[in-house]
Amino acid sequence: MTRIVVVGGTGRIGTRVVDLLRAEGKTVAVASRATGVDLVRGDGLRDVISGADVVIDVSKTDSTDPHEVSEFFSRAGENLASAERAAGVGHHIMLSIVGTSRATAVPFYAAKAGLERAVTMSGVPYTILQATQFFEFADGIALSGFDPHTDTVRLPPVLVQPIAGADVAAALAVLASAPPRMGESELAGPEKFELDDFVRIVLDRGGRRHEIVRDPDGRYFGGLLDRDALLPGADARLAPTRLADWLSSGA
Predict the structure, then answer these.
(1) β-pairing verdict for 3-7 and 27-31
(2) Which residue of 30, 69, 204, 215 is surrounded by the most CB atoms within 10 Å?
(3) pLDDT class for 73, splitting at 50, 70, 90?
(4) Measuring CA to CA, how many Å separate 191 from each of 13, 57, 203, 215, 232?
(5) How are beta strands 146-147 and 152-155 bridged, if at all?
(6) 92-112 pLDDT, tens digit each
(7) Contacts of 236 (CB under 8 A, 6+ apart)
(8) What's the family (predicted)?
(9) 126: pLDDT confidence band, cut at 50, 70 and 90?
(10) Would the pLDDT of 251 be above 80?
């Protein structure tokens, strides 16, 4: 029976992936700090990867410091690839972000782009799934643009095509049973929004406290972006869940 390891399997997306795979009767192991695995130091990694056929990496760091973000993905990617080669893993699935090649001014995106390159050169058969911004991350986007001097949230005039986290998890679960693509694919939500409109719609649900302003000089997590930098390409697969339906579901 195929053994699958979900790296970052106790996080928002990872938990959903684990639940979906186990509901299908798959043998799943979880690798995260909560289970005694440290990706940066490598603690416990080889033990959990041993015997794995498929590894799904949805790990991330909560740090916003550019150096720490870069260090996390660099060290984690190196340690994970080494453990996978030693275990003879047949398929590495990486969750990344749409726009990594265009939004390099954003430290998180630049670090993810570096990890993508490392995955392609790791020697382990791979698939990279690039997803757009999750509906669930609207709060974090707002926080990144908060200006304490004006008590407003200032966001750049860029376009986004956000997606439900559940749709991303479902796509990853499907990939676990598919052969490696040896390339990238994009997954996006079905609707396009101005970034400030998207955040405003979600935060209004919870009774937002601060005015949200479209600022031509605004930055997205520290980086200046072209208007279309975060949009998927024409070949992207579109997920089914619309923002209004996600909100009405009480997600």
Answers:
(1) parallel
(2) 69
(3) very high
(4) 21, 27, 18, 22, 11
(5) antiparallel
(6) 999 999 999 999 899 999 999
(7) 98, 185, 186, 187, 188
(8) Belongs to the NmrA-type oxidoreductase family.
(9) very high
(10) no
CB of 196 within 8 A of CB of 168? no
Residue 88 pLDDT: 97
Residue 207 predicted with pLDDT over 80 = no
Q: Do the Cβ atoms of 49 and 5 come closer than 8 Å?
A: yes
The CATH homologous superfamily for domain 3-248 is NAD(P)-binding Rossmann-like Domain (3.40.50.720)
167 Cβ contact partners less than 8 Å away, ≥ 6 residues apart = 187, 189, 239, 240, 241
pLDDT of residue 49 exceeding 90, the answer is: yes
H helix or E strand, kind and range, residue 39: none
What's the token pair of residue 37? Answer: 């695995």
Find, among 69, 74, 79, the residue nearest to 114 by Cα. Answer: 74
Tokens of 178: 């598919």
Q: Which two tokens stand for residue 92?
A: 């590495």
Q: Domain spans of the chain? A: 3-248
